[in-house]
Amino acid sequence: MSLLDIALNMVRGLRARLGQIRRERRWEHLRAQGMRLGADVWLPDSTWIDPDYCFLISIGDHCGFGEECLILAHDAQMDEFLDAGRIGKVVIHESCHIGARTVILPGVEIGPRTIVGANSLVSRSLPPDSVCTGNPAKVICSLEEYLAKHRKKIAERATFPYENVTPSPELLDSMIAATKSQDAYVVGGRSAELRGEGGTTRTPPYHIGK
């Protein structure tokens, strides 16, 4: 490894550490403002949280968000005409997973263990144990139906073990070949997260009053 490679790795490591410090401070700030942010939540930096009304937002344990989601707790569209804006609670229960670029509007509740597809608009409450998508988001199947479909495919298709490192050239070639005509699966990612060996940093436990 050259001196340049060593220097670049040091810079990358420092940037990653600074990013994590900034992320943890953001979580602490949201909680200090009154937002309920559970434990083991993946909340990317790009997830936009309504800054003025974050105290009306609650996110349960074990939730995950794709990039560039928006969570709104107010609607000021009518302000010019009525001199008033609407505010509403947003409750996202435990083990919900929200796809990238989803917009969640005020006054909605997403039931526990609900998956919301990418680029959806959640303008009304969604039931628990369901898979929802669309604009507006609506139920397309139950969580068990969704899981059963993927269990079957995992048993039939190529699988690769999760590793929190850059794949080797051989593994990359295998993945490319396996996905030439159909999807494949990477397994063990969640187990790695629970061991603290995953690729995403998750929120620490929530403490009342902090």
Give a structural overview:
- Helices cover 30% and strands 22% of the residues.
- The chain has 3 domains: 1-28; 33-142, UDP N-Acetylglucosamine Acyltransferase, domain 1; 157-210, no CATH class.
- The strands form 5 sheets. A 5-stranded mixed sheet has the order 4-9-12-14-15.
- Strand 14 (130-134) and strand 15 (137-142) form a beta hairpin.
- The protein contains 5 helices and 17 strands.
- It is of the alpha/beta class and 210 residues long.
- The longest helix is centred in the first third of the chain and has 30 residues, at 3-32.
- The chain has helices at 3-32, 79-82, 143-156, 169-178, 189-194; strands at 36-37, 48-49, 57-59, 64-65, 70-71, 74-75, 86-87, 90-92, 97-98, 103-104, 108-110, 115-116, 121-122, 130-134, 137-142, 159-161, 185-187.
- The model has no long low-confidence stretch (mean pLDDT 92).
Which CATH class of the largest domain?
Mainly Beta
Which outline best applies?
A: globular
Largest sheet strand order: 4-9-12-14-15
How large is the radius of gyration? 20 Å
Helix-strand pattern: HEEEEEEHEEEEEEEEEHEHEH
Helix/strand class: alpha/beta
- Average of pLDDT: 92
Q: Beta-strand level of the residues, as a percent range?
A: 15-25%
Largest sheet: 5 strands, mixed
CATH topology name of the largest domain, in short, is UDP N-Acetylglucosamine Acyltransferase, domain 1
Helix count equals 5
- What number of domains? 3
Binned, the helix content reads 25-40%
Give start-end ranges of low-pLDDT stretches. Answer: none
